[in-house]
Amino acid sequence: MHCIASSIPGRLRLRHPLLRDPARLARLVEDFRQWPQVGEVSANARTGSLLVRYDAAALPAEECAQRCAAAVAGLLPTPLQDAAPPIPATTPATRAGRRAGTSRVRANRLAKAGMLAGLAASMVLAAMGAKRLHIWTGVFFLHALGVHLWVHRRNLLR
Asked: Are 24 and 18 in contact (CB under 8 A)?
C-alpha cells in the first residue's frame, strides 16, 4: 500500500482516501502521539491526509516511513473485505455464441460490418463494370450507414 505523499527528515505526510473517515483518522492520530519521537501530528479528514512531525535524530526517515505505513495499513480494511465479487469470465450471452452488448451495440456492429462489405463489393463491381450490381451494393451501403447514423443520432445532433 502506498500512502506516503511526501517525506523529508523530520516531516512525513500520509494520504489515503480511506483516511477521510474521521474515526479512522482520530485513531491513527492517537497511535502516532504515543510514539516518543513524534512531536506534532495534524490531520485533515476532508483531504484524507495526516502530517507527522518527528525528531529525525531519534528516528531515521526510512524507519519512520515504514512504521507509519504499517500503522495506516493496520487501520485499513483488508483487500478481501473491500474486493468486489469476481466477474465471471463468460456471460450467458457469450456462452450462447452471441455477442454481448445492448441491442444498439449489436445493431451498430452489424451496420459497420455491412458498410464495410457493401463498400468493398461496390468498388469491386464498379471496377468490373457491373453497373446494376454496383448500384445495389451502394444502396445496401447507404442502408447500413443509415442504421449507424441512427444509433449515433444523439451525438450527431448536439
From this structure: yes
Angle between helices 131-151 and 103-128 (to 10 degrees): 160
Instruction: Say which CATH class 4-79 falls into.
Output: alpha beta
What burial letters (b/e) apply to 65-95, b meaning 16+ CB within 10 Å? bebbbebbeebbeeeeeeeeeeeeeeeeeee
The domain locations on the chain are 4-79, 101-153
Q: Note whether 17 and 3 are within 8 A (CB).
A: no
Q: In whole angstroms, what is the distance from residue 51 CA to residue 34 CA? A: 15
pLDDT digits (tens, 9 = 90+) for 69-115: 888 888 766 554 444 555 555 555 555 555 557 888 898 999 999 99
Backbone angles phi, psi at 45, to 5 degrees: -70, -25
SS (H, E, C) 71-140: HHHHHCCCHHHHCCCCCCCCCHHHHCCCCCCCHHHHHHHHHHHHHHHHHHHHHHHHHHCCHHHHHHHHHH
- Note the pTM of the prediction, 2 decimals: 0.47
Identify residue 154 by its one-letter amino acid code.
R
Q: CA end-to-end span of the chain, whole Å?
A: 44
